[in-house]
Amino acid sequence: MARKFSRSHEEAARSDWPGAFRNDPHRGESARSSESPHGDKQRRARIEIAFEEQTVLGALFGQFDQNLVQIENRMGVYISARGNKAVIEGPDDAVARARDVLKGMHQRLLSGHEVDAGAVDSLIMMSNEPTLEGIITGAPDGAPPIMIRTRKKTIVPRSATQIDYMRALVRDDVIFALGPAGTGKTYLAVAQAVAQLISGSVQRLILSRPAVEAGERLGFLPGDMKEKVDPYLRPLYDALYDCMPPEQVERRLASGEIEIAPIAFMRGRTLADAFVILDEAQNTTPMQMKMFLTRFGQNSRMVICGDPKQTDLPGGSAASGLNDAVNRLDGVEGIGMIRFNVADVVRHPIVGRIVEAYEGKDG
């Protein structure tokens, strides 16, 4: 059954799409030029896509076609769905991108991945990337798609910068992941670490962060050492449990294969055959950062995550070890620098707007 026009779509169809389209026999598409209100001509297009696997169409279009509406609102096109076909109409560049997004969604479903509002939004954000099809289905030269496989899920990049980050996680010895909250810095690092631990390419997973409160003093915390530091390390636990079954996390924590500790416990150690992650690195001092980086051992990988603009060091005037390390090490062979920005935020879209507003005020 064809999707019904909303009032806004009916008005758009009457005002923007009078008359017939000129068929292009070579592309199976139709296009024409129209004049914008400003007097310049804008090429319009109409593309029809047929999906052979019809069992996933319900998930592809979404309940009440919510996925199609999301694409329409974000990309400025109109999509009409009937049976196993979808017709996309709008400016030719937006139509081509919307086609790639729909194909990417369809391939995700065929590969067994879910397609929710976040996945649709991420594919829309990446639709300007020429490698979008390669990310989802594999590159034309037969290279595998970019993904991280864990026991609980398979993770694909959800922003353009995440593509570079996921490549760096398997290429570089030391990776600095810099940028605002919600860009997937820590989550992807933990996922890659879990994947390598499961495959046996590393023997240990070590997760660390400074025990610094975010703008408040918690005072005395009861319990043993683990209970005292756990509140600071909770985000790392959350990422772990999202990538591994709880019983496996607990078993590996008990055996020492997974270790979670404050950075103060790193002094004097050599971290060999390990995947080491330092989270909230902006809250280290230069001496702490130097100490941590020099723990690097054979057959190891080290990821340092942090937001240089969100330092919680006491007094506000202390130098950040993250900023100091980036200034010293940028360009050093074997060290990757991945810089995220507000456009890479993959949490709720409002998080990106909040980050942008705060950075605008501070800048």
Order of helices and strands: HEEEHHEEHHHEEHEHEHHEEHEHEH
Main beta sheet: 6 strands, parallel
* Percent strand: 15-25%
Structural category is: alpha/beta
Give a structural overview:
It is built from 13 helices and 13 strands. It is α/β, with parallel strands linked by helices and 363 residues long. The strands form three sheets. It has a six-stranded parallel sheet with strand order 10-9-11-12-8-13, sandwiched between helices.
Quick structural summary:
The protein is of the alpha/beta class and 363 residues long.
Give the SSE map:
Blueprint: H1 7-16, E1 22-24, E2 29-35, E3 41-50, H2 57-61, H3 66-75, E4 78-82, E5 85-91, H4 92-110, H5 117-126, H6 132-137, E6 148-149, E7 154-155, H7 160-171, E8 174-178, H8 185-199, E9 204-209, H9 225-243, H10 246-255, E10 258-262, E11 274-278, H11 286-293, E12 301-306, H12 321-329, E13 335-339, H13 349-362
Parallel strand pairs: 8-12, 8-13, 9-10, 9-11, 11-12
Antiparallel strand pairs: 1-2, 2-3, 3-5, 4-5, 6-7
